[in-house]
Amino acid sequence: MLALVTIVVMIFATSGCKDCDGDSPRARIINNGTKVISVQIKTSGGNTENINNIQPSTISEYRSFAAGSTTFTISIGNEVVETIIQMDNCFEYDITIDKNNVIVTSPRDRNE
């Protein structure tokens, strides 16, 4: 019986706990700028998501979509900026617009 308990404990210890098991990537928009922004997201699967009217000093909810090359078209006042991000499963991304309207992308592995 002790041997069986030891084997079960070893299996769980080596497999570890994962927060993500192949889940689709997700992203949120952080507006640290001074203007209201809107974002159009074109996913690798050909779908389009919109997140509109993100006020300065606010953060949007996460949006999930298929992994792959994803295009973010960001309208900052009258300026339009586009960035393409390779999005991977089990990652979440912060797309941050700073006070100078510069876009910074920060990926985070959800298993860490």
Layout: helices, strands, pairs:
Layout: H1 2-15, E1 26-31, E2 37-42, E3 48-54, E4 58-59, E5 63-64, E6 68-76, E7 79-87, E8 91-97, E9 103-109
Parallel strand pairs: 1-8
Antiparallel strand pairs: 1-4, 1-5, 2-3, 2-6, 6-7, 8-9
Description of the structure:
The protein is mainly β. 12% of the residues lie in helices and 49% in strands. The chain contains one helix and nine strands. It has one helix at 2-15, and strands at residues 26-31, 37-42, 48-54, 58-59, 63-64, 68-76, 79-87, 91-97, 103-109. Strands 1, 4, 5, 8 and 9 form a five-stranded mixed sheet that branches. Strands 3-2-6-7 form a four-stranded antiparallel sheet, with no helix packed on it. Strand 6 and strand 7 (79-87) form a beta hairpin. The longest helix has 14 residues, at 2-15. It is globular and about 40 Å long. The two termini are 34 Å apart.
Task: Enumerate the spans where pLDDT stays under 50 for 5 or more consecutive residues.
Answer: 4-15
Order of helices and strands: HEEEEEEEEE
- In DSSP terms, counting alpha (H) and pi (I) runs of 4 or more, how many helices? 1
State the helicity in percent bands.
10-25%
Principal-axis shape equals globular
* Beta fraction: over 45%
Q: How does the helix and strand content classify structurally?
A: mainly beta
Mean pLDDT: 85
Structure summary, number of beta strands: 9
Radius of gyration: 19 Å
Main β-sheet, in a few words?
A: 5 strands, mixed
Distance between the first and last residues' Cα: 34 Å
